[in-house]
Amino acid sequence: MRIGEAAEASGVSAKMIRHYEAVGLLPAAARRDSGYRDYGEGDVHALRFIRRARDLGFSLAEIAGLLALWGDRNRASAEVKRVALAHVEALEAKARDLSAMAATLRHLAAHCHGDARPDCPILEELAGGR
């Protein structure tokens, strides 16, 4: 199938398919005599895998590792679990950081008069508390 068909079947845009090929996440597709890329069902499965992994926030490097594990029939599921739990820890740390940022901004906004005066604790904080 051509790239547009692979994109539609996988839910991954043609532009991203080309990017995944360029960075080595997806093997370069075979070419037809016409020069068009030619994708098979295995490519579509890999693209769906990549899309789901991206939806869960895995980096391209992590996805490359997961793809390697997926393709390794002798893999230990413990390794897959280790990767997933490490990602969970990173997501939870990011969630804590985002929550702290929101609390800081909420606090600053609560102390901003929001009127015509130029005094603004939000800008003062961003400027380094001057």
UniProtKB/TrEMBL annotation:
GO terms for cellular component: cytoplasm. It is found in: Cytoplasm. The keyword DNA-binding applies. The keyword Transcription applies. Residues 1-69 form the HTH merR-type domain. Keywords: Cytoplasm, DNA-binding, Transcription, Transcription regulation. One of its GO terms (molecular function) is DNA binding. InterPro entries: CueR, DNA-bd_dom_put_sf, MerR-type_HTH_dom, MerR_fam, Tscrpt_reg_MerR_DNA-bd. GO terms for biological process: positive regulation of DNA-templated transcription. This is Cu(I)-responsive transcriptional regulator.
